[in-house]
Design brief:
2 domains, mainly beta, five-stranded mixed β-sheet, 3 helices, elongated, Tumour Suppressor Smad4
């Protein structure tokens, strides 16, 4: 998965096989990751910094209504200014105001975006924000521990675990690795490397999914006939361990909804058409209607 491009996962949960006793703990960790600092339920805003014809711009930031980037009331009325030059963003803090970048007090700082692989975190009171880049756009993603998505969260809903949807799949590598075209909800399309595909059977019928590499394992972005009914309409995500002896164990009990199910301010990738499964897989996370 191209996490730098699409900004999918701040907290990564290890994938394990089987619907065994550790599944309940894994699901608890999944819920905790959404609520944690940097979790998707805390994402409370996304502000695109639209440059002028020269690729530059100045954007006031603070809680007052006259700011171009308007923060919640917990922030100072006029925190300072974000300066954009050739897709590089710097923060200039107004005199008498306080902000930290990666935990250090600053009066001015250049901010790394997630396109660098490790974005800087700016903290103002108990709010934080980071710079993201999507399809050439530069944006400010805001995190708020008091967002309605946090305070009104009533927990995730899951299908009952069943071994029926723990399947042993054959992994076939692409030699050389194949590029698949992935489009996000903004309409940006980019190539993502696929190391291979898996084939498996459900109720005696064979299905196929293209894999993406993620960490030491595989990532699957897929749709099935539960989407738009009991699961999120746009698709679901699933991580597995890496192939071993040409075999991958796929535990659909660990399928999750994408970040867009939890916040209006995510930029999720959509499942490639090669990963549309013409079968209902009632396993994993149901759609709880957070967004």
């Amino acid at each position: 998965m191209s996490s730098l491009m699409f900004g999918l996962a701040i907290v990564t949960l290890a994938a394990g096989a089987g619907a065994g006793s550790d599944l309940a703990e894994w699901r608890k960790a999944r819920e905790a990751s959404l609520l944690a600092p940097g979790g998707w339920l805390r994402v409370a805003g996304l502000f695109w910094l639209t440059p002028d014809a020269d690729g530059a711009g100045e954007f006031t930031i603070g809680s007052a209504a006259d700011n171009r980037v308007q923060l919640p009331a917990a922030a100072p009325a006029h925190l300072g200014t974000l300066l954009l030059r050739n897709k590089q963003v710097s923060l200039r803090v107004a005199p008498g105001q306080n902000a930290q970048v990666n935990g250090a007090d600053v009066s001015e700082a250049q901010l790394k975006s997630d396109a660098t692989g490790r974005s800087d975190t700016v903290q103002v009171t108990d709010l934080t924000f980071r710079i993201i880049e999507r399809g050439g756009r530069i944006g400010v993603r805001l995190y708020d521990p008091h967002a309605a998505t946090v305070t009104e969260f009533k927990g995730l809903r899951w299908f009952d675990a069943t071994d029926k949807y723990v399947v042993t799949a054959k992994f076939t590598p692409y030699l050389p690795p194949k590029e698949i075209r992935i489009t996000n909800i903004l309409g940006d399309t980019a190539p993502v490397g696929s190391p291979g595909f898996v084939t498996f059977k459900i109720d005696g019928k064979e299905y196929r999914l293209d894999a993406e590499s993620e960490g030491d394992g595989l990532f699957f972005n897929f749709k099935d006939l539960t989407n738009g009914k009991t699961t999120y309409a746009a698709g679901r995500f699933l991580n597995t361990a890496k192939p071993k002896d040409g075999v991958v164990v796929i535990d659909f009990n660990r399928a999750t909804n994408p970040p867009c199910a939890n916040t209006a301010y995510a930029t999720c990738p959509l499942a490639p058409k090669s990963n549309y499964l013409v079968v209902a897989i009632p396993a994993g996370e149901q759609f709880s209607g957070h967004h």
